[in-house]
Amino acid sequence: MANTLGEADEFLGKNQFFYLVFGFCALINVILFGLRNMVISYAERFRRKLTAYRLSLQLALADWMLAFASSLNVFFILALVYIAAFNSTEDINLEAYEVLVYAGPVLVAGVLLSLVFFFLKKRA
């Protein structure tokens, strides 16, 4: 909410922020690991009906989902470290933490690009 001057009336406390971010990370992990388990169970259930190519594709996709979840977790951790440094009352040189701002998204983009290259390689 904001007052008539556009200033915030309420702020998010450290505890609220921590539990919101923790819940968001947990939700993302549950969704990704649930999807991964669905892909694996599908591959195991229809193992006899799937071709070797299709089975290897299913299992590789499940492995990629694990890599994607890991890269998202690293991104979340790096973002929280930067936010903690930014909000610190100590005199911290934030230029030293600039690599954290770019490392997380670059890692996630790299994993997403690996999926594109994986499917292009599998089609060839």
Give a structural overview.
The chain has helices spanning 14-45, 52-87, 98-123. The termini are far apart. It is built from three helices and no strands. It is an all-alpha fold and 124 residues long. 76% of the residues lie in helices and 0% in strands. 2% of the residues are buried.
Task: Give a quick summary of the entry.
With 124 residues, the protein is mainly α. The protein has helices at residues 14-45, 52-87, 98-123.
How many DSSP helices? Answer: 3
Number of beta strands:
0
Q: Structural class of the secondary structure composition?
A: mainly alpha
Secondary structure: helix percent = over 70%
Instruction: Describe the largest sheet.
Output: none
Note the beta-strand portion: under 5%
Please state the overall shape, judged from the principal axes of the Cα atoms. Answer: elongated
Between the first and last Cα atoms, what is the distance in angstroms?
A: 55 Å
Q: List low-pLDDT spans.
A: none
The mean pLDDT is 85
Work out the radius of gyration.
Answer: 20 Å
The secondary-structure element order is HHH
What is the fold's blueprint, element by element?
Blueprint lengths: L13 H32 L6 H36 L10 H26 L1
Annotation keywords:
3 helices, mainly alpha, 124 residues
